[in-house]
Amino acid sequence: MKRKPSRRVAVIGAGLSLFMRRALDTGKELAYYAASQALQTAGIRLKDIQAVVMATAPDAFDGVHMKGEWLLDGAGGVGKPYLRAYVGGGSGVFSIISGWMMVASGVFDLVLVVAEEKMSSCQPHPQGAFLTIFDHIIERPLGPNLLWIFSLEQQRYMAAYGIRNEDIALVSVKNKHNALAHPAAQVAAQLTVKDILDSDVVAWPVHRLMVSPISDGAAAVVLASEQVARRLSDRPIWIQGVGWCLDTSYWGNRDLAYPRYVEKAAWMAYEMAGVTEPRKQIHVAEPYDPFAYKELHHLEGLQLADRGQAPEDLARGRFDRTGELPSCPSGGLMGVGNPIAAAGLMKVCELFWQLRREAGARQVPGNPERGVAQAWGDLMQIGTVAVLGVR
Amino acid sequence: MSDRVAVVGVGAVPPRPLSVDRSYRELGFESATRAYGDAGVTHQDIESFISVCEDFHEGTSITDEYTPDQLGAVLRPVHTIAGDGLQGVAAAVMLIRTGIADLVAVEAHCKTSNILTHEQVLAMALDPTYERALRVTPHFVAGMEMRRYLHETGSPEDAVAMVVVKNRRHALGNPVAAYGGILSPDDVLASATVCEPLRELEISPNSDGAVVLVLASEEAARRTPKPVWIRGVGWASGSPWLAGRSWGQASYAGVAAEMAYRMAGITQPDREIRFAEIDDTYAYKELQHLEAAQLAPRADVTRMVMEGDTRRDGRLPVNPSGGSLGMGYCFDATALYRTAEAVRQIRGEAGRAQVAQATTGLVVSWRGIPTQSGGALVLSAD
Amino acid sequence: MARTRAKPAIARAQAPPYVPLRGHPLNEEEFRGQVGSTAWAPRLEYAWDAGVAISRFLDGLRQGKIYGVRCRRCGRTVTPPRAFCELDFKPMDEWVELLDTGTINTFSICYVTWDMKPLRVPQIPAVIEIDGTSPRVGFLHLVGGVRGRTVTEIRRQVRAGLPVRAVWKPPAKREGAITDILYFEPVRKRTKK
């Protein structure tokens, strides 16, 4: 896909709910909080919205079949063209890609994008929703759980490049610290590498404090066509490029050391954005960090660090908020929380605020003009990438 | 640059009550192979792939994981819409119109026979706090809607039965239909009551199936042998709550059709639409959708059906393929089967099921109970 | 398209993250006892058709064999078998009987159940590259026949690159399932006298 899109799309408003371990609020209510805040900051009302995209991950969390239908009133979808895009953990960033398609096609001028997750309903533990992500015939009988996937991938990544757990633990430290300045944060904390490694081993090499939490929460953005964006907003943030890529379901036939599908998605977005040297032209990054090692894995896939070198870059401060390439200045999933689909869109909201210099105590210094947000999911399979910029 | 999009390839496996010999991957591979061959393209020519499926239909969380291989889409831009087949088509249309892709495939599949506890799955779609506790067959939603529709329109149950008769008979002329048959209205009305006034023969029977469509930009379409143009597409959702919805009308279909007509520049649908493939998951829905899509005023619908206007040889053929009642109901793949059949009609490839001068057709889809979500698609020969 | 009426954007000072975000967090006690809730235990049962390729694979397992399949075009030999090559998009029909030995590509030592309860004896999931396939082709299974329960003890016996062998259920107990292989155990070197 080498051609550039013919129409430009901007983000003109963003909103979040709190991210919580267990919310009193229903999924519909959480979606409503985020959506109404996004509309408010865009200076428009729901009736101005012409279409709605919803991203929300496994229906098994809520115990509601076709839960996209059930949630649509909270997302403002009644009476409107509404659809749900669902690519597992990649959904949060894919939601903005889906919304982008709607506006860049010329069919709609104003689209509301909502991402919601309420994991706490799933009993006895939300991880149960992931029991059935594995192949029904040749994997499920082995009794796999979600942690296996991450620990197998982390172990492969460490073995391939000689990375130590101490290097990975730094991600938890950085992101939980960054999240202290995030108003939605669920698990912000000031911790040390020792704290991380002292936490019990859940599935070696993964320690408990390297795992993002179960969360309930929602995020939303408003997208506008160029003409409408210029009329409504004094500081629209442009979607310069989007990319997405899904690898084979035969994950045992792939090398887990490197997320090649993230690379492909990233180049698709970079090419659309006119980015030829990501390390110079990307000023702030929000890679997906459901587990600590994933931020490093994804930074490499995003071409922002050499393969196997992200831990070293992290250790010398390159990815700190005040470093050369701030990564997860929001605090990421490790610090803010992981309501799966909402977490990805939270990262897009962060770029929106960072690029408008509205991120308050989380603001990265200097004059960031372009950022990249990335999400990941399925069986270590999908990369969804969005490049946002001030021009 | 043109904004026109066409359907240039269609591939489907004949829907059947069982498909024990093949896995969903193998069915998908066949439907994709057929579609790409039909379009004269390879899997590498396709630039993006859109799948329409639902976790609880597959029995797999994040069923998106299992979409790329059988489409030849490994390491390509693939995404899943947990929604209606026509939402998948709409997404493909919009993606092409962004200008970044010329060829996009849309797929949907369902092995309904692999779902053992159907009613439990359907019941899971009801609101857990207010609606699910009723613990009656989920078809009650359709029963209640049918009751209200009959009441508001004054339609006799015979008109609903006639839809079944018509569609099952149409299916006899469709070589890929699973449920062709010759029934009389009495057969239908004598069948077991599922949830009064809904009868068993008025519920489309399940089948397994898989469909792939290939959509193309105008530039790419002109290089393929048989483009069928998408003049307009629309989709909409009404309230998910059972309480407070307008039970008698399929307002979501009205909004969707209106959006499609506006895009197509159609101002008099009842004159400009030559035939329609319309969701008939339950027989009464065909009538309700006909009205919502402005193909017949409410007062005329009964007469049209009883007098044969909606038969294949009538003034406004509806479901010449046999619809879901005649072909089988395939959950997420149903809307794409309707679309595939409409495309065949416009190409003149429908054989014994062919409608004469089928130049412009309408597809109307619905996601099934308890949703109020559906889509509309206007297709034409040029 | 509907016309949009412009309204002045909310002053930046009130924009997030400055505005209090909404949500009512509950602690576990509140969640379990003090708020209204509805419970539902679904009965969701499926019987999946294994299809041509996997049926044959499962038959092979029943006979104590691991099958793979080879693509004539790209030359890959892969397992688990499939009816078509997902890369070349062509039918794949050259069946190969593989060995029941392999190499560990990656592994983990899992101390919790799916609902986060502690496991006394940890599970050792792994990706096993099966001998006879193309490089780095494998599938998920378990490692067994390993002494000890701590990470240190287990890591002395299990590592990436370790040769392993399938330990099968006795023939009478096999069902034609992936669990006909109980686990893969480390291949022990014969000690020289």
From TrEMBL, chain B:
Domain Thiolase C-terminal: 252-373
A GO molecular-function annotation: acyltransferase activity
Top-level lineage group: Bacteria
InterPro entries recorded: Thiolase-like, Thiolase_C_2
Protein name: Thiolase C-terminal domain-containing protein
PANTHER family noted in UniProt: ACETYL-COA C-ACETYLTRANSFERASE, ACETYL-COA C-ACYLTRANSFERASE
Signal peptide: none
Organism: Candidatus Segetimicrobium genomatis
Automatic annotation (TrEMBL), chain C:
Domain ChsH2 rubredoxin-like zinc ribbon: 59-86
ChsH2 C-terminal OB-fold domain residues: 95-169
Pfam families noted in UniProt: OB_ChsH2_C, zf-ChsH2
UniProt-recorded name of the protein: Zn-ribbon domain-containing OB-fold protein
Source lineage: Bacteria, Bacillati, Candidatus Sysuimicrobiota, Candidatus Sysuimicrobiia, Candidatus Sysuimicrobiales
